[in-house]
Structures are given as C-alpha cells and as structure tokens.
Design brief:
The complex is a heterodimer. By secondary structure, chain A is mainly alpha-helical. Chain A starts with a helix and ends with a helix. Chain B is globular. The chains are: A mainly alpha, B alpha/beta.
Chain lengths: 284, 405
C-alpha cells in the first residue's frame, strides 16, 4: 500500500515537473508548428531571473513574476526578430532557434559566468502525506502545474483571443480571410510560450543546478512531452503522466537507463499509432 | 551534424556566426586566445601545450586550470626556464568533444610545436588525442582525477585513481560512522563504473555490504524515482560518483525527499568546491569528499601557491580544486625533470620523471615507474556554515595501477 502511494506520488511529482517544462513548447509547437530549440534557454533565463531576485532578497513570488516577465519579453523579441521570418519553413525554424540558443547561452555566460548557481528552495524538506513522506516543494509544483495547465487551456477554449488563436492554428489563410490578423496572434502565442518557459525555469531552479548550459537538459524532456502529446494542448497532461509513469516505474524496478529508453519507446509507439490512425482516416 | 546544419541556412548561418563571435569573446583563452599568444622568443622557447575544456558544462574547470598553468610557467621562467630556455604556454579548448580534442591536440603538437602537452579533460578526449601524441612522440601529461587503466609510453597520469580515492577512505568512513550498508550511485559512463568496481572490493574487504548500485544518464533533471529506489534499499552510506550539475540536482532533490546527508552519510569522489557550494550549506553539510587536494591543505607550499594565485588573478578568481592543482603539479614536475635531464628529449625526461618527487601544494607527490603518482589523499567535510575542513589525511597513497612501459 505504502509502495503504491509512494509510486503514485512520485509519478505525479515527475509528471508535474515535465508538464511545466513542456507546456510552453506545446504552445509554440502545437499551435504554430515552430520547433523552438531555444526553449531550454528560455527556461534557463527564467532560472537566472529567479536567482537574481533571490540574490536581492526579494520574495519567491517576485522571482516567479520576474521569470515570467523575462520569458514574455524574450519570447516577444524572438518572435519579432526571428520566428516571424521562419513560419514558412520548419527547417529554418530549427536552424534559427538552434543558433539563438547558442547566442543566449553565451550572453548569459558573459553576464553571470559559468559557475553553478544555487537558488534556495522556498519549501525545503519533506511532509507527511497519506502515510508517506514526500518533498513539500514537489507537492507545491503539482498544484502549480495543474493551475498553469488549467489557465492555459481556459485561455484557449474560453476567451475570444483563444478562439482566434485556434482558428489560426487550424487554418491561418482561412482565418485571415475572416479578418483575423494572424501575425499579431502569433506574436501573442510565442510570447506566451516564452512566459511559460520562463515561469518553468523559476520553478525548477530550486530543484537543480543553475548554469548557462542547463537548458539542454530540459529540452529533451520537453520535446518528448510534445511528441507524445501531439498538437493538442489538452493531451499534454496525459502525455506527461504517461511518460512519468513509464520512466519512473522502469527506473524503480530496473535501472535509470532503461527508464529513459522506455520513455523513448513510448514516444515511438505513440507516433506510430498516431500515424496509422491518420493514414486510416485519409484512406477511409 | 552541427556544421552540416549551419551550412544549410543563410539566416541560421548569420545567427551562428554571431554566436561564434560571442563565444570567442567569452571563452577567453579558448582556441582564439591561444592563437593570439605571441611567440616572443622564437624557436629558442619551449612550448607547453595545455589541452583543457573551456566551453560547455565542463568549461567551469578550464579557466582555473589555465590560471594555474600560467602561474606555473611564470614561476618556471622566473627560476631560469627549462634547460636555459624560456617556456611559453599555448592553451587549446576541446569543448568537451573528443573529435575537437584530437584536432586541437594535433594543432598543439604540429603547428604550435608543443614539446609537452598537459591534458585536463575527460577520458574520451584522452583516448582520441593520445594517438596524436604517440605519432608525434610528444610527452602527454594527463592530470585530472580519472578511472585509471591508461598506460602508454608517452604518457604520465598524476590524477587520483579509484584505488587512491577509495582504498583507505571507505574503511575510514565505516569506522567513523559504525555503518556498513552502501549504495553506489553514479553517472552512466566509464569513470563511475570503474570507481564502483574498485569500491565494491574495498567495501567487501572492510566487512561492508552493497545494497544497491545505479547509473543515471548524464544531464538527469528529475531524480525522484532514483531517490525512491535508494530509500527502498535503505542504505546507511552513499558513494556518489555524479558529475557537476547532476550531483547538485541529485543532492538537492534527495535532501528534500528526506535522503539528505543527515540520514545517509556521503563519501563522494568528485564533489569539489564549486559543486558543494551550489548545493547550499544546508544540503552539503556533513558530506565527506575524498580527493588529492583542497585549498584548505595546510602546508607552506600551498599557502605560497594560493597567495600567488590570488595576487595574480584576484580575489574573485575561481577556486582552485584538485582538478586544477594537478595540472600545476604536472607542469612543475615536467620542468623539474627537463632541468634534471638537461633538455626536452622525451626518453631522457621520461627516465627522470619515473621516480621524481615534487613539493606540491597538495604535499609530496612522487611520479612512479608505473607512470602514475603516489600522493596524499584528503577527506574533507563540509561544515554547517558551508566551509570545508580536512578531517583526515593520508600521505603517500600509492595507485594500484600496473603499467610497465
């Protein structure tokens, strides 16, 4: 019983972490088909924003706000300066954002150096829950992940802006003929994606190492989440839960390398199934 | 793949060029700076090549290594150089990539005419670069802590090997704590695996028990399930061989999950100053680290060494860790051997280096006939205020490395 509770909480905690770093990428990739290889660097910038605010002894929430603002600003700038020119070609968006990721890493290294930085945990230690002990901060992250995903989905489904965003995502040309200004919407979507990445960076900072190169480590997980989720934002929750479950349980009962491999295998199976379903529809 | 990709997009190429320009500015002492080193004395100078990592995640350790190399060269020149000739330093950056390391090694020995190459980089780069040194018949001094097992007629390795870091420290930790149940947790590559192979022998010999062993992929950001697995095995002692950021991430998450050092005592083999500092004092407090050098080593040579380092590079210069100090030792040992041999001939220097003692910041270091170094090993413990205290010293620890060439 305890074992089941421990495993379930562990999976929830890992899924929350994964969902937070994935949701920003899911917004830009799912809605705009932009492969943003600088997503990890946006997360890194959020972590540094949290570090700087913490160093100035500002409260933890100020760090989250600063990180979100930095992500929003960098996302907007990136859309205007780079992404806007790359919509027609996925290859170019890969190249452009790959270059951008190097620039951002080097600029942060110039400003802050290469050193490992520490962002203190606002809720250190474990709490007792359902008879087992679980990291308090992870519990908070689960709640935040649920809140963030609910907000993003609500914004898309329930607001006029969300409706237009979905219209552009479905068919940009058709939406334009109906008077939707897709360029402005794309700016909003990519800025939102940046803000979500920045927020995720501030949230993961207390759990790990803050360093200019940290983004790459998160990028892999985020892309795995997006690949499994596909283009539907609502599927991010299911995808992250599935990946976390497979990876955690395999790691627990076998070893960490097999854990990671089985997460990849899951992505592979999902892609194959989805493709077959798509072809099935096409021929039907 | 990267260069192929960059060739294909005009825009991306422009962005990439900007990135490289920024990179060259920031990595100060990478390949760009090395090329700029002026050959002041012409062919009369002896060139020391330093192959290290200035960029990428491991790039943290390149700058202090370059600093101590400059310090060593300055001291050697102030004392009259090597066999009457001035010495100059050329630095090459492998960027943590073995292919790059091999090319840079080639440049150091062929274009820069390095008479000796001092290497502070990972084993993958060593394996790639060694054939270049062999072909050019150039002395190669490999300096960082590593898994051992390397043996070549042009190479000496003075970094700590598992037998030195673990043979005495494992029984000591068990005796100190009265505990026996070990968990071994490392990154998934050759150094942690070889270290744990050795560790298991010493644990068994000391009457201990290994209750679990795991290897995590490099760059792991979520250790939740690994932590749960360790907790389930219920060890009293933990031997982490996690590198850099992974060590920090694991320890911070383990602390929050109730698997901190207060519950399970750590004996780490790579948690150097930067790593422990970034964990924060609360997390790092009480951990033991076994390495061949800490800044806290108390002897006149180390005091003078650190004073010179701070004077030359400022109070804010990165801390000197075992990784860098060993490079300083290797360069000083080479100069001593070359002066004793009366020149830079490989065979003559090799003969002198086999059985050469250096009065190093770490203490007495002796390069042996087996091409490894007998040296002091220290156990340092992080205090609750984040400072480091050396709690145990072993002088003259011999490496268990048979190498007979």
């Amino acid at each position: 019983m305890d074992n089941l509770v421990v495993q379930s909480l562990g999976v929830l905690g890992s899924a929350a972490l994964l969902a937070l770093i994935t949701v920003g990428l899911a917004v830009s990739f799912g809605l705009m088909r932009i492969v943003n290889l600088a997503h990890g660097e946006f997360i890194m910038l959020g972590a540094y924003a949290a570090m700087v605010t913490a160093d100035h002894e500002l409260p933890w929430l100020a760090g989250l706000a600063a990180a979100t603002a930095v992500g929003l600003a960098v996302g907007s700038l990136t859309e205007v300066a780079l992404i806007r020119r790359l919509y027609r070609s996925p290859e170019l968006s890969i190249l452009g954002t790959f270059g951008l990721s190097i620039v951002v890493r080097q600029l942060v290294e110039l400003a802050f150096g290469k050193q490992y930085r520490n962002v203190a945990n606002p809720m250190p230690g474990a709490v007792e829950l359902l008879g087992v002990s679980f990291p308090a901060y992870r519990l908070l992250l689960i709640a935040i992940a649920v809140g963030v995903l609910a907000l993003v989905l609500a914004a898309l489904r329930l607001t006029p802006l969300g409706l237009r965003v979905r219209a552009v995502a479905a068919d940009a040309d058709l939406a334009e003929t109906l008077g939707v200004r897709s360029q402005r919407l794309n700016l909003a979507v990519f800025a939102g994606s940046g803000a979500l990445a920045g927020l995720a960076g501030a949230l993961v900072a207390p759990l790990g190492n803050v360093q200019p190169d940290m983004g790459v480590d998160y990028l892999f997980g985020a892309f795995l989440g997006v690949i499994v989720a596909g283009s539907r934002l609502g599927a991010v929750v299911v995808a992250c839960l599935a990946i976390a479950a497979v990876q955690n349980i395999m790691t627990f009962f076998t070893d960490p390398m097999l854990g990671r491999l089985s997460a990849l295998a899951l992505a592979f199976v999902v892609l194959q199934t989805r493709r077959r379903a798509a072809f099935g529809e096409a021929t039907a | 793949m990267t260069s192929e990709v960059l060739r294909r997009g005009v825009l991306a190429a422009a962005v990439g060029a900007l990135a490289l320009a920024v990179g060259a500015c920031s990595s100060d002492g990478g390949t760009g700076a090395a090329d700029a080193a002026p050959p002041t004395g012409g062919s009369a100078e002896v060139t020391v090549g330093l192959l290290t990592t200035m960029t990428g995640p491991a790039g943290l350790f390149g700058p202090p290594t370059k600093n101590v190399a400059e310090l060593a060269i300055g001291e050697i020149n102030a004392a009259g150089g090597v066999a009457g000739r001035k010495v100059r330093l050329v630095v090459g950056d492998d960027a943590g990539n073995p292919d790059t390391g091999k090319q840079v090694m080639r440049r150091l020995v062929q274009s820069d005419g390095a008479s000796v190459v001092v290497g502070m980089h990972n084993s993958a780069t060593r394996e790639a670069a060694l054939p270049v040194a062999v072909q050019a018949n150039t002395l190669y001094l490999y300096t960082p802590v590593f898994e051992g097992g390397a043996c070549n007629a042009v190479m000496f390795a003075n970094g700590e090997v598992p037998s030195q870091q673990l043979a005495k420290t494992i029984p000591w930790v068990m005796q100190q704590t009265g505990k026996k149940r070990w968990y071994l947790l490392g990154n998934d590559y050759v150094w942690p695996r070889k270290s744990f192979e050795a560790a298991k022998r010493y644990i068994t010999a000391a009457g201990g028990e290994v209750v679990g062993e795991d290897y995590t992929p490099l760059g792991t950001t979520d250790f939740q399930s690994v932590i749960q697995k360790v907790q389930k095995a219920g060890p009293d002692l933990l031997l982490p061989a996690l590198v850099g950021g992974d060590g920090i991430t694991f320890e911070k998450q383990a602390y929050d999950a109730g698997l901190g050092n207060d519950k399970v005592q750590r004996l780490s083999v790579l948690y150097e100053d930067n790593t422990r500092a970034a964990m924060g004092a609360r997390v790092a407090a009480g951990m033991y680290t076994s390495l061949g050098y800490f800044q806290e080593v108390d002897n006149p040579t180390n005091t003078a060494f650190l004073a010179a380092y701070r004077q030359k590079f400022g109070a804010d210069a990165p801390p000197v860790t075992s990784l860098s100090e060993q490079t300083y030792v290797a360069i000083k040992a080479w100069a001593q051997a070359a002066n004793a041999a009366g020149g830079t001939d490989l065979a003559k220097i090799t003969e002198k280096l086999k059985n050469l003692s250096v009065d190093a910041p770490a203490g007495k270091v002796t390069f042996g006939v087996n091409r490894y170094a007998t040296q002091p090993i220290y156990i340092a413990q992080t205090q609750s205020d984040g400072t480091t205290t050396i709690v145990q010293t072993y002088e003259g620890v011999t490496p268990d490395e048979p190498c007979d060439v």
